[in-house]
Design a protein that fits this description.
Helix content: 25-40%
Number of strands: 16
Number of domains: 2
CATH topology of the largest domain: BirA Bifunctional Protein, domain 2
CATH architecture of the largest domain: 2-Layer Sandwich
Shape: elongated
Oligomer: single chain
Radius of gyration: 28 Å
Length: 405
RNA sequence: GUGGAAUUAGCUCAGUCGGUUAGAGCAUCAGGUUGUGGUUCUGAGGGUCGUGGGUUCGAUUCCCAUAUUCCACCCCA
């Protein structure tokens, strides 16, 4: 038997209903916030991700599905969604056009990681990106939108917030931090030794307890923000307070992708195991110019759909449509004609095998139909169809000519 | 990429200190005097015990490899 590749799942029946419900709910909310759908390719030039996500990141360093195609192009399956949207934004010269551009998207992403619960090699994200808005109100809008989506789906969360600073305050802070890490000498773990040179800010996020004890006295970026970043961060907190969105400041929160600056946030759930980040995002004002566009402020976020799946509270399902069946082989012909008429306005599912009334009623239950319609000996004699409303428990005999005229 | 656990019916799981017909619940299907469901009773079907090797008279059970899932790292959505 051939099976799907490791970490790549099929999504079917009830799971797909949840999946579809999520997409519909999230898309509706994104549209209400004024965002438009954008579809970008799953396959992009490898350089796009090296320049945007950053070569020092694990995503680019060791998790990409990268290969040389038949035309000798170095390509890879997208490991995240932002880079492609920014590429499209620049390619279609929206940066030069100016103004505000707001997009949302959803689709498959690929990362060659060791799978576990909530971590797949092919997974799905729903994300939004906003271009051209400098105001921190847009950052707040992003967070409110995620909060709205999670609320609509009945999902509880904790919101972590941090500011990563901008090009004025980040570099000087970075130097102070590296000096601090140097002062710790060899007492820090191997991972941190490595991170010291690749992405020093990540050491703050180290899960090693010994390291955490040392870092308690590490300089915090939040105390070294420049005036602009500090005031934006304060404004953001005020807006969230006004909208009753709870948050916790997490000075160790560092987004894993290199392109973030200023606002960084992460929504986490305590009910889904160790892969607890359900949404993450922040501001990335420098990325557009990194990708050869005209400098444009931007913010965005992405939600991990698979991580949300089991947390989604589905609305109660209501009985819907028709189940039609024959109790006699010759009754199948009129049943099919009735189904065709019903289908013009309702869901109508036909059982082809002649069965007892009892079996048909059970069949109607199984597909959660509102009505069970059958034709047997009696109905054939009267040229009619028997219809039972399974909710009201009423039944009637309808002449075939009057059924869905 | 590192360390560990698991894999038996469609699903959730028992079980065999290696022995001939591998079990349960749920689900499916069929019946309960001839046409009334979701909440009853009875019965039936369904498993080369993840895959490939090895040890053995004999392996679902022991050993090795491999695949997948899960847990902890790592990382991130």
């Amino acid at each position: 038997m051939i099976q799907s590749l490791r970490g790549m799942n099929d999504i079917l029946s009830e799971d797909y209903e949840r999946f579809e419900y999520f997409i519909t709910t999230a898309s509706t909310i994104a549209k209400r916030y004024g965002f438009h759908y954008i579809e970008t390719p799953l396959l992009e030039e490898t350089a796009l991700f090296k320049r945007s996500v950053g070569e020092s990141s694990d995503i680019v360093g060791k998790e990409m599905y990268q290969f040389i195609d038949k035309g000798d192009n170095d390509v890879c399956l997208r490991p995240e969604g932002t880079a492609g949207v920014v590429r499209a934004f620049v390619q279609h010269k929206l940066d030069k056009k100016g103004g505000i551009h707001r997009f949302y998207y959803h689709g498959a992403m690929f990362r060659y990681e060791r799978p576990q619960k909530g971590r797949l090699r092919q997974f799905h994200q729903f994300g939004v990106e906003s271009f051209g808005v400098d105001s921190v109100y847009e950052d707040a809008l992003m967070i409110m939108m995620v909060a709205d989506i999670l609320k609509a789906l009945g999902i509880g969360y904790r919101l972590k917030l941090n500011s990563l600073g901008d090009q004025n305050c980040m570099p000087s802070y970075r130097e102070k931090l590296i000096a601090f890490i140097e002062s710790c000498g060899d007492t820090i773990c191997g991972d941190c030794q490595r991170r010291k040179s690749t992405n020093p800010i990540r050491v703050l996020d180290c899960k090693n307890e010994a390291c955490q004890a040392l870092y308690a006295n590490a300089p915090k970026l939040i105390n070294h923000l420049c005036e602009g970043c500090q005031s934006d961060f304060d404004t953001l907190k005020t807006i969230l307070d006004q909208h009753n969105i709870g948050y916790e400041i997490d000075t160790h929160l560092v987004r894993g992708l290199d392109y973030y600056s200023k606002t960084a946030f992460e929504f986490v759930s305590d009910n889904i195991g160790s892969q607890s980040a359900i949404a993450g995002g922040g501001r990335y004002d420098r990325l557009i110019e990194f990708l050869d566009g005209k400098p444009t402020p931007a913010v965005g976020f992405a939600l991990g759909i698979e991580r949300l799946m089991e947390l989604i509270v589905m609305p109660e399902t209501v009985r819907d449509g028709y189940y039609l069946g024959a109790m006699d082989a010759v009754a199948i012909k009129p049943i099919l004609l009735c189904a065709e008429k019903a289908r013009r306005s309702e869901k109508a599912v036909v059982e082809y095998e002649p069965r007892s009334l009892k079996a048909h009623l059970k069949g109607a239950d199984r597909i959660n139909a509102r009505y069970c319609a059958v034709i047997g000996e009696n109905e054939l004699a009267q040229n009619s169809i028997w219809v039972k409303d399974l909710v009201e428990k009423t039944e009637s005999l309808i002449p075939l000519n009057d059924f869905f005229v």
